[in-house]
Amino acid sequence: MTDPYLKSPVLLLALLLFGVYSFAQKKNAAYNIHIQKTEETFTIDGKGDEATWQKAEPANDFFMVLPMDDRKATQPSEVKMAYDDKHLYLLATFFKTPGNTYVVESLRRDFNFGGNDNFLLFMDPFNNQTTGFSFGANAYGAQWDGTMSNGGSVDLNWDSKWVSEVEHYEDKWVVEMAIPFKSIRYEKGVKEWGINFSRLDISTNEKSSWTPIPRQFPTASLAFTGNLVWDNPPPDQGLNYSLIPYVLGTVGDSSIDGITYDNDFKVGGDVKLGLSSSLNLDLTINPDFSQVDVDRQVANLTRFELFFPERRQFFLENADLFSSFGYETIRPFFSRRIGLGVPIIAGARVSGNLNRNLRLGLMDMQTEKVDETGLPSQNFAVLSLQQKVFSRSNIGLMFVNKESMDYEALADSLKTTYTKFNRNLGLEYNLASSDNKYTGKLFMLKSLGPESTENGFAQGAHLAYSSRQWNWRVQQEYISKNFVSEVGYVPRTNYINFNGSAGYLFLPASETVVSHGPTFSGQYYFDPSMHTTDYLSILGYQVNFLNRSSFNLNLFNEYVELLAPFDPTNTDQEELATGTRHHWNGVYMEYSSKPKSLFTYSFASRLGRYFSSGYRTNLNAQFGYRFQPYVSLGATLSYNNLDLPSPWYTTDFWLVGTEAYITFTNKLFWSNLFQYNEQSRNFSLNSRFQWRYTPASDLFLVFNSNEQLSPLEGKVWSLTLKMTYWFNR
Where does the UniProt annotation place the signal sequence (predicted)? Predict the structure, then answer.
């Protein structure tokens, strides 16, 4: 067989050539906004009546991005900025057409971008066009904040300490912000940052940006930022640390066999220490994540483990340094493997920029042993380095180590269950051209374990292109049979995969349709001897309407040769045999309504054949209604009907989720999520009350209930009161 290191020489050459091509001047380098220091004391009230704002240079004359990017915005916007020794200030004014109403879902923090009239700030303090911070507000004052990575991805799970207020007027709405310098990271002595401002006005279906951005890219794309030019370098942060202690009490009970629940009182917390203005040390002791959003359940009819994103605050700042290596299904590090049903004793993390072009991520976490199962105490260590090359590309190095403590003292029977260590070493190159049209990746991973059967290899590469009308992507992957990543997310091994996609958009001069066009995508899996084991081909057509509703129609052709026994219902019934072959066709349709309406909805349906010459009917619906700005209601319905021969016959099951977000103010929230999964025979309820009594400091009251149906009958519930406080210096 061909050496896996040589599986993608063409893609490697293409990536390097496009890397050289990408070494070009910043696209919107001519767009500058100058910022001056002020000695005035600000009141953050949305009025903007300080004298500083009368003298500040405005960023205005925004460009339209959607529905079309060849003209100026019809809804005027203006942004001004200033700073003092401690804060970065912003005043943004958004004029509106008389008679137009505001559209917001609620006052919930980190709102859905497409469902709210909103303003967003994108900052690139290192001007590297790949990483940064985002802050924003919707038209009723709900806050948005997140870290930025990979040239424009925003992680809203990150939370920081800052203040903002929104004020309404007859012809405009105004947002005023104060962002502490201690809440962000930047390079000392630098007088120029990347920056951009984005506005979404749903009443006119218009998305606009201060700098021009092609319509195929989000306004968060850091490749298209302008420049924030300081009169003097931003102030030195000096001693910068935060203490974030918590205290909580929990009561609960369980009637499920094998699960015990003890009432609990816990104290712990985090420490954030600025090693420099761009490098941060995070420490956590006895961490608790009881207030984190619960996962949304899904019906699983695949043969593989499902992925659920990380939501725990400690793991989120500069998370891309650890979590974006490889592909979605070939991740050497997945932080949710740490503390999965096991208490975390403590952890430390150093992350940020060593200089403008070099980033560092270093993490070490220690978990407790579990006497009931014999699981030993374990240590998780991760090292990540990322060096910028060309204009926006980078080279990354990662090392992941999982080590069991006092392993030799374990009983021999436990040594077959728990490994002594598992290590992954990886190198990757990420391509991003200066105009963002070309992106790509090439990576190699090596796993190391105490046995030779754990010393494997994984590799992947892709190249993608996106223009106003054309988009395409080609990708290749290889994972050996003995590749092991115990701290990663690798649901499948021992395969070679080729996949790709292509699409074209027509842009008609129409008052109803913005764009429409065909799409094609394909996934093709082979074993190491190049024998076909799976494939999925999809031919589709998409239509995007001016009111921001959309319709998609897809025809698919799928083939599976089972590599292991599999129950096609995933409900613990009889399994199909290894080696059996299954082939089917079907159709998938989806429609999403316009977000402007108080009542929103989407429908999706999958109809076609299934395993063992059976049939599968899948119907999905989502509904939403808002009593803006205080209440947002939602419901998700999913129905699967599997019509199969003996011994399965007909199997059908529902997945129902209902949620209610009640936002009394933009600091007082009550969220409720009820889920019923008939496939896993499970009811769950999560109700969380949150009072943000001061910036970044919260009081939580969280109720959780999980009930299992026959044959695993039982119930577990808990009620937690938790208080956190953010001390800053």
Answer: none
Query: Which residue type is seen at 523?
Result: Q
Give the N- to C-terminal CA distance of the chain in Å, as an integer: 60
Cβ atoms of 359 and 276 within 8 Å: the answer is: no
Three state DSSP letters for 610-671: EHHHEEEEEEEEEEEEEECCCEEEEEEEEEEEEECCCCCCEEEEEEEEEEEEEEEECCEEEE
535 neighbors 514 (Cβ within 8 angstroms): no
Both tokens assigned to 230: 């300081």
Q: Which residues pair with 513 in a beta bridge?
A: 545
Q: 40-62: per-residue pLDDT in tens?
A: 999 999 999 999 999 999 999 99
Q: Is the pLDDT of residue 170 over 90?
A: no
Cβ contact 115:595 at 8 Å: yes
Which structure tokens are listed for 70?
Answer: 């060849």
CATH top-level class for 31-230? Answer: mainly beta
Specify the 3-state DSSP secondary structure of 487: coil
Average pLDDT score over residue span 546-571: 96
Distance separating alpha carbons of residues 649 and 612, to the nearest angstrom: 11
Give the C-alpha separation, 503 to 574, whole Å: 40
Kindly calculate the radius of gyration of the chain based on its CA atoms and give it in whole angstroms: 26
Question: Where do the H-state alpha helices sit in 551-681?
Answer: none
User: What local confidence, expressed as pLDDT, does residue 11 receive?
Assistant: 59
- Helix (H) or strand (E) segment spanning residue 45: none
Q: What is the DSSP string of 542-577?
A: EEEETTS-EEEEEEEEEEEE-SS-B-TTSSS---BP
Distance CA 406, CA 420 (A): 9
- Whether 721 contacts 290, CB under 8 Å: no
Give the single-character DSSP code of 339: T
pTM: 0.90
Nearest partner of 661 among 676, 646, 679, 674, judged by Cα: 674
Taking the C-alpha atoms of residue 112 and residue 242, their distance in angstroms, rounded to an integer, is 29
In whole angstroms, give the CA distance from residue 382 to residue 423.
Answer: 10
- Count other C-beta atoms under 10 Å from residue 331's C-beta: 24
User: Where do the structural domains in the chain lie, given as residue ranges?
Assistant: 31-230
Cα–Cα distance for residue pair 453/472, rounded to 1 Å: 37
Range in 315-324, 508-517, 521-530, 668-677 the model is least confident about: 315-324
Phi first, then psi: give them for residue 4, nearest 5 degrees. -60, -25
CA atoms of 567 and 644, how far apart (whole Å): 11
- Model confidence pLDDT, tens digit, residues 623-633: 999 998 999 99
Q: Above 70 in pLDDT, residue 260?
A: no
Residue whose token pair is 């593989």: 304
- Nearest Cα neighbor of 595 from 201, 115, 67 is 115
The rounded percent of the chain whose pLDDT value lies above 70 is: 95
The β-bridge partners of 146 are 134
**319, 155 in Cβ contact below 8 A?**
yes
**The token pair that represents 501 in the structure block:** 């996609």
